[in-house]
Amino acid sequence: MTLSLRHTRxxxxxxxxxxxxxxxxxxxxxxxxxxxxxxxxxxxxxxxxLALNPPSAQHWFGTDALGRDILSRVLVATRLDLGIAxxxxxxxxxxxxxxxxxxxxxxxxxxxxxxxVIDTIMAFPLFVLxxxxxxxxxNSVENIIYATAIINLPLYARVIRSEVLVIKTAGYIEAAKxxxxxxxxxxxxxxxxxxxxxxxxxxxxxxxxxxxNAAGLSFIGxxxxxxxxxxxxxxxxxxxxxxxxxxxxxxxxGLMLMIAxxxxxxxxxxLRDLVDPRKRT
Amino acid sequence: MAQQSKLRFIIxxxxxxxxxxxxxxxxxxxxxxxxxxxxxxxxxxxxxxQEAIDQVRASLGLDQSLPIQFLRYIxxxxxxxxxxxxxxxxxxxxxxxxxxxxxxxxxxAALIFALAIALPLGIVAALYPNSKxxxxxxFLMTAxxxxxxxxxxxxxxxxxxxxxNIAPAPTGRLDLLTSPPDRITGLFxxxxxxxxxxxxxxxxxxxxxxxxxxxxxxALAPVARVTRASMLAVLSSxxxxxxxxxxxxxxxxxWSYAFRNALLSILTTMGVVFSFLLGSNVLVEKVFAWPxxxxxxxxxxISSDYAAVQGFVLTMALLYIVLNLSxxxxxxxxxxxxxx
Lengths: 281, 340
Hints:
The structure holds two protein chains of two kinds.
Chain A: H1 2-14, H2 16-38, H3 70-106, H4 108-122, H5 126-137, H6 141-167, H7 171-178, H8 183-219, H9 231-242, H10 248-275
Chain B: H1 2-33, H2 39-44, H3 50-60, H4 66-78, H5 92-127, H6 132-146, H7 149-163, H8 188-194, H9 198-235, H10 238-245, H11 250-287, H12 293-302, H13 306-334
Helix pairs in contact in B: 1-13, 5-6, 5-9, 5-11, 6-9, 7-9, 7-11, 8-9, 9-11, 10-11, 11-12, 11-13, 12-13
């Protein structure tokens, strides 16, 4: 017991930044769950007499052009921003893994078609493709999730395909085949679980990028619509005020966005070290 | 013989790009047909009768079935006809060609900034792996890639324009009173130098600094990471050990033996870096009112200007394919092992 405790402490000590990022991540999860409960004001309640007040004891992050409390809006927005990113990453993870496992294990025409689909997606600059998809599907939260999931699909499909190509030559896969497992069983029980550790790293790094992507879409007016509190829109709404000196409108949601993305990027880096120290770059 | 295999390599690469181009054209067509709003109603004007709308619809070819529309679309594209923009009243091709140089100038400047910062830092990190410097550089680069570009841009504007007042106002490529230099390449920095107009050159340069840095910060991390990784791999190779044992000057080893070899893997990641830059371009252009194709696309999206959106997506994708293709070909030219 003390040994494992000491070991845990050693691992944490060696990866202080990763551990910090993990605590930050827990913080964000708590905010996403309890955000509306903690928020001191109603994020949608406007009050013209309080418009554009700088940060003060009553309004720590100040108020926006409609007199809404920015702290409350930033806190409440956590759930939406994180929710979009998690849903998008989960969708591209599931679809991409399925595509990658099938392509890697069966090869042949399945591989050829999957390869073509992935190449076509990758032929676009990804944010531009997301813009096009959003424009075609229309502005809604679900559509941001679909757009973000589609542009991230190639990453998962390619990583898991190359993992499967290596794993499928292993002896235990041969043994599983000989003992009468069907193809589907082999894929679900042996190939997919063994490719998971590598995928975890990509999921974490990808979360940060998904958050940035969703916020970027909202920033140019192609995502979540006002008055919903969302970090990207809040920065966009604050943008016009920044050159006249009202910095707090854009600064606080922007900082939250940055910290959230940084948290996932550091976490991903740390996980990569733990999973495979040699791949550290 | 070697010449011949190089040529074959280049032709192979060119052929390999064709499926991507077809895919891009098909996807763009599907996306724009799905755009909300009826272009026929738009073109016919607000007070048009149903009959007039139908007439416009027929003249646009929108009453045909989708496969036929697609064929007509391909025919138009081959003629260089991207359609007409509803918002500007110009042909989309004209709009894009006048605005593309602005975007290219911004992207190239951002890339130069990113390379100038990230290459040396990546080399330092590789020379002292796992040192304090290595960790610090890694953390800074990760922080850089975590910055939302639109937020960085606004932050820089606040500090350098509003507070310190040393940066120019975000009025695009020049201030409102200066007229652009004669168009030669469309890149203001080059055009103003060629025509010898140094005042415009300096102004264009000052306007470019903040957007370029904003965009470039995003590309620092991938460049620094791959520089570090490939330098580490090269530095631990046998020929570096041999060069060291022969007593060659450390700088000579670093520059002519290690860095040149590492440059090859750095080149291959440029494709990813460009994808980043072209995408973020849209956001940076919006923040700095930069008159490039990104801000054009944002305006077009808001007004459901489907020919313009289609032209933008297609241009970006083709640009990206051409860039990747040239990276591949340059790689093949530099590295004699490729393509054999």
